[in-house]
Amino acid sequence: MSRFRPYETVFEPEELALLQRAYEDACRELGLDPAPADPEEWRSVRDALANAVINAAKFGERDQAALSAFAIAFGMRNWHLSKR
Description:
single chain, 84 residues
């Protein structure tokens, strides 16, 4: 049994809306549809962008532009996506 408790973060509804907007901004900036008709289209990339936003928020970031920029930088570095 681990001595460490899992790190869990609970976001308030307003914070979740902020995270959603940051994710959508990042997707659009990278030329990805945040909710494509085909849910499998670029799914791993979209999931990773969402996780990047969430992870930055776990450390206290609440600025939408900063959250989006973090996800964009992550996407560009890991998938060689370019701003279109």
